[in-house]
Amino acid sequence: MDALIILCVILFWLTIILTMSHLSAYIKQKRLLIDHVSEVTHTDAFSKKKMKKSSRATIVQKVLRYADEFSDLGERINFFSENEDVAVWLKKSGNVYQLSVQQFQGIKIFLMVVGFFVGVLSFIIGLPFSQYGLIFLPLAGYFTPIIIVRTQAKQRQEALRLDLPDFLDTISTSLQAGVSLDQALKEVIRFFDGPLREEFSRFLYEINLGVPRDTAYRNLLERNDNREFQGLIKGLIQGERLGVPIATTFKIQAEALRQIREEQIKELAAKASPKVTMVTTFVVAPVSILMIAGLMVLNLIFGDNSIFNLLN
């Protein structure tokens, strides 16, 4: 009987290992197939994001069902969230969940109502600090969407700035080899991830739909407020009007961005020294002095030459 149990356990774990192995191989082959289809059809990053719905996206979709009922109220109660500001935040954050301004205003009020009911429930149950929850939980529900969207917009613009120099160098090399701008963008963006790929994929999509190039450039400027990125797009617009070679524009922009980044790193390094000095002065030095003083006091009380031994 014991041998049969051991055999079943061994077969069970062998089955688990085989299942995990085949699952890993399936996921790997699926990823390779998706990459191959993306290369052949030149699809952008938006299709992948729509296919891969995360749990967070599922939660947002469920919240949207109730948030639509609060959209009118949210447009009236618009403290720190005017409709114009919300529209700009959604554009700059990439609007991953494809929210409209009205839906965003509805989510804000819906979470505030949820926070109020959670605060009331915690107060009835008698949880610690529940009396403060009646005030802070509705406020947290109201301001959480605002903070999240503004943070996403800031992080997206920062990621755009970090990837821009390498992207410009690659595009400049492709253009100097005689490739057209649209073809160079189509080939190069496949090797980049994040907002840079999203923005130029959308740009190419607009160009293929017949949108004038100048309008497509200005749409890029409206969706992003990063200074380096805006300098690149404005340089492209100006170069197209004046007839400056595009490869030269990309090369100059890449060199300028690297110089700006070097100056920013030097500035951050210069700002770090006073901060280290402040921490040393107000944290490390007092703690060291207290430790030395404490050791001296302990030595006077419990040491061989303590005060009590001298008195005796």
Automatic annotation (TrEMBL):
PANTHER family: INTEGRAL MEMBRANE PROTEIN-RELATED, PILUS ASSEMBLE PROTEIN. InterPro entries: T2SS_GspF_dom (IPR018076). The keyword Plastid does not apply. Residues 167-292 form the Type II secretion system protein GspF domain. It is a multi-pass membrane protein. The keyword Lipid metabolism does not apply. Keywords: Cell membrane, Membrane, Transmembrane, Transmembrane helix. It is found in: Cell membrane. The chain crosses the membrane at residues 6-27, 109-129, 135-153, 276-302. This is Tight adherence protein C. Its main location: membrane. It comes from the Bacteria.
